[in-house]
Design a protein that fits this description.
single chain, 227 residues, alpha/beta, Rossmann fold, Arc Repressor Mutant, subunit A
Length: 227
């Protein structure tokens, strides 16, 4: 008997969507934990912490953004927000609350599974990667642990993967497209707004001095920070 796949919390109040997600994810090898309200999702996540979450933006007792915020209080699991609203402001609001991805309904099953798998890969680690220390910033790439001036800082899986990508080529300018493709995948090559939100969140958590902007082009990790 094969081992169960990653547990995914799915929260949506539309019965048809919830049923479709259950079928899609189970066929892809995931174990599904279902919820129809924000409170139900938070309760089930607390009782049996999932490996990832897929949350609808509009819920009968709140919204997916608040669910993201409350999950982020104790968990770094990948979170994908689903929404029928494709407005950029809503996307930015969800990402700023800690979501790793934002998918607009209607969505294709293969796209959803691919994005979920990519988010879970970003949450994984490579045991052979070294630790990096730069001017008060310590990043244990294998353990996915970040310290700033000795204090631990909690990053989302996507924020950590963005930091890791910049650190691997520190000092080198990486274009928006290079970063988006490396961290999110080729489908995101033009989604600069997503990148800007995550860079802003990362700077807020570790300090702005480490990541330099080349306006209109991209970002680089400055290994001379503070020097």
């Amino acid at each position: 008997m094969s081992a169960p796949g990653p547990r995914v919390l799915v929260c949506d109040d539309e019965h048809q969507i919830l049923r479709a997600l259950r079928v899609i994810l189970r066929e892809a090898g995931f174990e599904v934990i279902e919820a129809a309200t924000a409170e139900e999702a938070l309760d089930r996540a607390a009782v049996r912490p999932p490996d990832a979450a897929i949350v609808d933006l509009v819920l009968p007792d709140g919204d997916g953004v608040e669910v993201c915020r409350r999950l982020r209080e104790w968990s770094q699991m990948p979170i994908i927000v689903l929404s029928a609203i494709g407005d950029e402001d809503e996307k930015v609001r969800a990402l700023e609350a800690g979501a790793d991805d934002y998918i607009v309904k209607p969505f294709g099953p293969r796209e959803l599974v691919a994005r979920l798998q990519a988010a879970l890969r970003r949450a994984g680690g490579d045991p052979d990667e070294p630790a990096v220390r730069v001017d008060g910033l310590e990043v244990d790439l294998a353990a996915r642990r970040v310290l700033v001036d000795g204090a631990e800082v909690h990053l989302t899986p996507t924020e950590f993967e963005l930091l890791r990508t910049l650190l691997r080529q520190r000092g080198r300018l990486l274009t928006h497209r290079q970063l988006l493709t490396s961290v999110w995948g080729s489908a995101y090559g033009e989604d600069v707004a997503v990148l800007r939100v995550h860079v802003a969140n990362l700077r807020r958590k570790i300090g702005a001095r480490y990541i330099r902007t080349d306006p209109g082009v991209g970002y680089r990790f400055d290994d001379r920070a503070g020097g």
